[in-house]
Amino acid sequence: MLPKAGLVTMHSGNVSGYDPESGKVVIKPSGMDYDLVTPANLVEVDLATGEIAPGQAKASVDLPHHLYLYRHVPELRSVVHTHSNYATAFASVHKSIPCCLTAISDEFGGEIPCAPYIDNEGDHIGEGILKYRGRGPAILLGNHGVFAWGTSVSNALKAAIMVEDVAKTVHLGMQLGTLIPIDQTEVDKWWNRYHTSYGQDSSL
Ligand SMILES: [Zn+2]
Q1: Which of 19, 33, 117, 198 is catalytic?
Q2: Distance from the alpha carbon of residue 13 to the mean position of ligand 1, in angstroms
Q3: Running along the chain, 204 residues long, what does each successive block of 10 average in pLDDT?
């Protein structure tokens, strides 16, 4: 879905999922174009030990950040990382995406924050994501791109798609005039409705 949604090119970005029953994280192989990725060559990693069984492809270089997030946010089941164009344009100028659309209120409950530049050593990116994240399931990393997450693979994917979609609309809005943020009390109304009564009952 990532290339189909236009969020990645060639082999950029990555995605992982976590299965708490087996304790395994499954992540995209390093430097592999998406059209070559199959269920068979996804890399399986033990979350507790970080060990990868021999004979598998090399895991994405961003594996440590994915593992850090699963270890510190127990409800997480999926993490998506992209350099999608409009969202990463905001990251290139260290601008958060202000909450000036009801769609941002629904999905993110406030602005989508932009963290400062963070280097790629150790747990710096994982720590930075938790330090600078807002209420919603995504963050921009200054000079870098997007991390999005969710309680399922489809939720994380939706968050990554939504960040790019609203970044594009907000960018267009900036060409027309001054962005008008929504009052937090109004943001809360959209957020609460979206997280309580929106969509179909799961029994349907
Ligand atoms: Zn990246």
Answers
A1: 198
A2: 6
A3: 93 95 97 92 96 93 97 97 98 98 98 98 97 97 98 97 98 98 98 87 56
CB atoms inside a 10 Å sphere around CB 21: 5
Q: Is 106 an active-site residue? A: yes
CA 62, CA 28: separation in Å to the nearest integer? 10
Catalytic, out of 62, 86, 106, 165:
106
Please name each of the domains of the chain with its CATH number.
14-196 (3.40.225.10)
Task: Please state the pTM of the whole predicted model.
Answer: 0.94
What Rg do the C-alpha atoms of the chain give, in angstroms? 17
Ligand 1 center from residue 82 Cα (angstroms)? 6
Backbone dihedral angles phi then psi of residue 129, each to the nearest 5 degrees: -60, -45
